[in-house]
Amino acid sequence: MNASSVNQPPLYAARTPIFPRRVSGKFRSLKWWLLFILLGIYYVVPWIRWDRGDALPDQAVLVDMAHRRFYFFMIEIWPHEFYFVGGLLIMAGLGLFLFTSVLGRVWCGYACPQTIWTDLFIAVERWIEGDRNNRVKLWNSPMTFRKLRLRMTKWTVWLLISVGTGGAWILYFADAPTLIQDFVTLSAHPVAYVTVGILTATTFVFGGFMREQVCTYMCPWPRIQAAMMDENSLTVAYREWRGEPRGKHRRARTDDSLGDCIDCYACVNVCPVGIDIRDGLQMECIGCALCIDACDDVMERIGKPRGLIDYMTLVDEKLKTESTNFHDLIKRLLRPRVILYACAWSLMGLGLLAALFLRPDIEFSISPVRNPLFVELSDGSIRNSYEIRIKNRHGSDTKFSIGMEADAPLSVRLEGSDELSTFVDADQTALRRVYVTAPAGSAAATGGKINIRLRVEDASNAASAQKTTTFHGKGQ
């Protein structure tokens, strides 16, 4: 073993427990509001009802895997329209690029599921075991009945939250009230129990025991974010020019040789990933801004201006400025990459909206039967066959009429029916065969190809659509 391999730092460091201190302030309040709103959406949305008709599910948001449908309130996505889901995923990625280029790891600090559930688990831990000093003391103390009781209580609450997390997830894939009843009575599909078990375990472990390690070692975004940011990106940072040299300030006199930082470690003690923001921008920082609240509180108590730790750009630090006017701020934010991300995001969103609202009321497709191209009947007439697929997007069985337009004396007939109409089940696709016949001796029968237009009309709302296809005569 050579010396270089001996001195090489390990790729993985054993976790050192972090015990963030309670802090209050505008950013902590914002995080609490977002936590309650996002968790409320996650847990409540499966229970919202939306009337789509007797034959369709009334759950507002539902991924119906069995029938290959995705329902989102008034929107219904069929399998062939999966590009909507792909487009939304692209928009999510572009949005992440956009917000990161402007505000750094704002997603990680405020809205990432790992951050949300970790905040919730830390709040439970603080509620049961006390604030930072009490938790540190309890961690370092020998195992006693009290320590075991507090740990078991904390783990039980964590486990209940984890079960609720997995339980809420499966409700997006089946009718929520029915699935809950089946789940409790042990009659649900085994996939439901496996899914809840996996999500319960991952939530319990990631939120309770791995926390910052998920962000540092498992999540790829800390290593990608640098490509999205530049010196004009707003990010949580320490104003070194104002805080250094740091040191303890005496009450009796003012030491002009020291900066505003009193080296109290308040910013470190509240950090959920245990870093010192004064060491500069670090990969582990999730941009939660709790260090800003902690530092501002200290600055107010010692009579110093707020903002020693703040949202700022690297340009501000180089210029040693604490603020800039609104015009300069907008000018910095509207950089080429930000404009590019914003335009790409907006174009994708507009494209999806256009595709959504321009979807035809009636969807059908025509497949000419070309084996054989035509059939000559006993009376000399020529018949072509076509298969029509009609999609019924309604929540009830619907009657559709079939018609034809052509520049020739052709007749049309629906197989198995004396009428040119058919019923299609609710939210289903029906395959029907249509025959188009040219009279014996007619130009259409003896000639070559001619274009015809088949029309489908929805009897419930008089909406209609037509498609052009080809009729083949004997002169092919």
Protein architecture, described:
By secondary structure, this protein is an alpha+beta fold. Among the domains are: 90 residues, no CATH class; 110 residues, Immunoglobulin-like (Sandwich). It is built from 18 helices and 14 strands. The strands form 4 sheets. Strands 6, 7, 8, 10 and 12 form a 5-stranded antiparallel beta sheet that branches. Helix 3 runs antiparallel to helix 17, helix 5 runs antiparallel to helix 7 and helix 5 packs across helix 9. The longest helix is centred in the first third of the chain and has 26 residues. The radius of gyration is 33 Å and the shape is elongated.
Write the layout of secondary structure elements.
Layout (H helix, E strand, L loop, with lengths): L2 H5 L18 H19 L16 E4 L4 E4 L2 E3 L5 H21 L2 H5 L2 H17 L2 H9 L4 H26 L5 H9 L5 H21 L1 H7 L2 H8 L6 E4 L1 H4 L22 H4 L20 H12 L7 E4 L1 H6 L6 H8 L2 H22 L5 E7 L5 E2 L5 E10 L6 E9 L4 E4 L6 E4 L4 E10 L4 H4 L2 E10 L5 E9 L4
Helix pairs in contact: 3-17, 5-7, 5-9, 7-9
